[in-house]
Specification:
Blueprint: H1 28-50, H2 52-69, H3 74-92, H4 96-100, H5 104-113, H6 127-130, H7 141-157
Helix pairs in contact: 2-3, 2-7, 3-7
Length: 164
């Protein structure tokens, strides 16, 4: 090495770090992820909107069952179940006036035709014909619970529709 060389005379500068990388514009992958999140959120929003009638009907049936278990008269609970079921059927059908006019065996046949089972015309659902109109004290709690479970199963079996 050269003995006359003085390293302190060299014009050195301190280490320069590169500037921070700016977060905008986003990379292509982030745009894809944002689009996917929007699509999934939109799907769930539409699904939530389409099942609002199902939730309302199940809530009405749940309230009737809870009232029955709390000691309410089974006749009143059967009336609530019948009302909730009819409201749901009317809102889900394309012709609500026709559904509103159904009574007796025609009403039970309509309910059975909507889910390809016979839980109403031959099962616990037959209670819909007489239970809402019986006298207080003449209906058993267990039969009313069976009726509500058949109605809940029927509501769950119905497809969600976007009809307004």
């Amino acid at each position: 090495m050269n003995p006359s060389f003085d390293p302190s005379t060299i014009p050195l500068r301190d280490i320069h770090l590169p500037e921070a990388v700016f977060w905008w514009p986003l990379a292509f992958g982030w745009w894809l992820l944002a689009g996917l999140v929007l699509i999934v959120a939109g799907f769930f929003a539409v699904r939530f909107y389409a099942t609002r009638r199902h939730r309302a009907a199940r809530r009405g049936l749940k309230d009737a069952v809870e009232a029955l278990r709390a000691g309410e008269e089974p006749v009143f609970c059967a009336q609530q179940v019948s009302t909730a079921l009819r409201r749901f059927a009317m809102t889900m059908n394309q012709d609500p006036a026709r559904v509103a006019g159904l009574v007796g065996e025609g009403w039970l046949a309509f309910l059975d035709s909507c889910w390809e089972q016979t839980g109403f015309s031959r099962g616990a659902g037959r209670l819909l014909l007489s239970a809402p109109y019986t006298t207080v004290g003449s209906l058993e709690r267990e039969r009313c619970l069976e009726l509500s479970s058949v109605c809940i199963a029927w509501i769950k079996a119905q497809p969600a529709r976007m009809r307004s």
